[in-house]
## 1
Amino acid sequence: MGYVIRRIVLLAVTLVLVSLITFFVFQIMPGNPARIMLGTEASESEVLHLEKQLGLDEPLLIQYKDWVKGILTADFGQSIKYSQPVSDLIISRLPVTLSLALMSIIMVVVVAIPLGVFMAQRQNKLSDLVFSSVTQLGMAIPPFWFGMLLIMYLGMVFSFFSVSGYVPWSESVQGALGSLLLPAITIALPQIAVKFRYVRNSILEQIGQDYVRTAESRGLGDRLIMFKHVLKNAMIPVLTIFGIILAEVVAGTVIVEQVFGLPGLGSLLVSSINYRDFPLVQGIVIYITLAVVIVNFIIDLLYTLIDPRIRLN
Amino acid sequence: MKNIKKLGKNFNFIIGGGIISVFLIMMIVSFFYTPYDPNGMDVANKLQSPNKGNWLGTDDFGRDIFSRVMSGTKTAFLVGIIAVSIGMVFGTIIGGIAGYSGGWADEILMRIMDSLMAFPGIILALMLVAVFGPGLVNTSIAIGLMTIPGIARIARSGFIQNKEFEYVLSAKLIGAKPLKIMFRHILPNVSSPLIVAASIGFATAMLAESGLSYLGLGVQPPDPSWGRMLKNSQTYMASAPWFTYAPGIAITLMILGFYMLGNAIRDIKDPKSNYE
């Protein structure tokens, strides 16, 4: 129980600090934010009006308190550019990003784990060299460029993929898949490149353990040892690493949505920065970050169910 | 000496070091000479495929792609150097203080680092760019801030391990001040994971810069940037694929080089480490 309480306290501290950073970064902005948002042609009274609307004339601590209070009631403020609540904008863009992130995560799990298991059984000097090169290359290709290459080589050849724009699931499942598959592959590639090696290394570490030799001496087949004994133990360190995937995949959507012209949260964030729509930037950043932190927290707690040893450390 | 011999036989070191050396030479040459003015427009010659005059073809404004790729090395290295220096200096100081002093200072510093790390990937940098505006320097600083927490963690764990060793105790006994112990005695002993982190840091910084520049929020013209070149090439992918290959391959190779270099140093210095 002590472990869970410590985790909850840590979560609370992180959430408070994240909110402080996100709030105060926008306070140290050089110049008057209302003036920057409205541009140089705006009159003094317009600037004053926007300041009042955003509550910029209040003391900082009151502003922060109101902002946090808003977030707790799912009110992330008002977008200047769209004159809509930030939360409405986020909700309207969420399905795209969520589908994209989920598809990439599924791809990573479905490809990286079997690939890692397969590669662990074929270990020699040459294959090690090939794997480490593949991993490093997969990490080195900028995702947005890889996405562009996919568009060029697959998107323009197969009509199944739509290379720009998004087809909602409600309209056509095939269309949605066609518009999300290539971006999902783009996000998944660097993750697969790194994670399959984790899986492989974790299995190799287990294969050297005494219990494997015991199992062998009992005459168990390789296959049985791998799937019944080794894999169970090897998956524990792997699972903890898969928790990090979420944050990386979410960060990946920001750029990749732009490559494929998908109307998700990432492209909303980029356009909000271009429009200098600071409440929207702030809202999206805090929304994404809180979501990732909280989901990671839940995943962490689930690990303790799988592996009680974690609680003791 | 033994380590240097080992490096000479390490595959990652040879290839990675080779790639980075070629880019370094390219950068030095680009200060004095590029085949054409990297920003010199020649609209009559736009989107030419690779030919005798323009080895890698020309872009949508008729600028020579090879010259632009060459001068792009300056931007890439500059962003890398600024970002990695910020990350290393602040990361080492913060991690060092946290690890060496422990207690409350450790708790407070590391909680702040954790919360900086809670922002997924490029999002912290995007927020900083939103506030301070794009451009080469701002982008590099934003990326540098993004890399502080990771380096602080590495430094902290090194300092925690080392502060229990006898050489630290003897330094204390002869009356060395804490700052001197930290930076004169312990730092050299925790330097190898930090050097690895710096090399990998170059790779991640360049990756982040190219991403931000692709979004139009990184390096701004006239500073040449491979990421921005790629953004411009996207419209012409079908008709002028060479426009996208040159900067794309340049970025990939540069980042690959730093990853390989970092991994090579890790393999030599710390052969037991299993995970990357």
## 2
Amino acid sequence: MTTLEHAHEEHAAEHAHPGARTYVLVGVILAIITVAEVFFYTQEAVRAFLVPLLLALSATKFVLVVGFYMHLKFDHRLFTGVFGFGLLVAASIITALLFLFGQYPLPHPAG
Amino acid sequence: MAHTAVPVIIDTGAAPPAAVEAPLVLEHPHTSTGLDSRKLLMWAFLASDCMFFGTLIATYMVYKNRSLTPPLPRETFDVPYTSVSAFVLLLSSLTMVLALAAIQRGEERRMRVWLSATALLGCVFLGGQFYEFSSFYREGLTLSSNLFGSTFFTLTGFHGTHVFIGVFWLASLVTHSFRGRLHQEHSLLVEIAGLYWHFVDIVWILIFTLVYLIPD
């Protein structure tokens, strides 16, 4: 296969986005996850592992929107690389700041 | 004998030429990657916006529970109300992607309907945020009342500004379409606007969990 043919195939694959049915299905899943988040938030029984549970549900919604609605699952991998780099830096900033302020905590409010 | 030139107007029945508007740019020039630079630029912008919101979210979380004076998050938030706002923004992402699917099929009228619905849902979200901010203000929470107020309003205010810009962008696309300047071959313009809109949505997915749902 020539480089040109390869480029054409890649370009065609880049535009092979899912149809309306898939989009609606993803929308329904997102709505169900949102309802589940609020449900778990109100349940005392899951209080012990509420934070990891909510983070996992939130991450699932994030991946669904980025993968299907923003088409990263179907588009060229360069887009994933560019966005992933920004996301990695953002996650590193959050983690580093939480770690730093955990190591050197600010004084707690009185009372 | 002198002749005078008289202009002759011949009615051919054809309509006079309409004023031609400048066409939108369709084709992207050749790039080494074969990808459209505009789309790549949007992804680069979204990556930088990730870092921007990353710092705002980190600042909110670091200063969480550090306020010396009330009101505090637990006594301020109305989670069921914010859940509806989150649902509205999720729904707007669905209508946005349906607008893109419509223009990729060449269904311009349907695209206008979905784009208008997206902009309308964005306005509903902004109205909800305005109401929420107003009620917080009445309870004594302002940008300068305590650490919670400063970090919360900065984070959610910048997100709201992004939504406002998105609504304006969507409205301009609908206007272009009504003027007959947005066709199937311009679907990339809708796709790029959609990328921005979905990004605003995923930021709210994180804010909703990290700010509103995770307990103090």
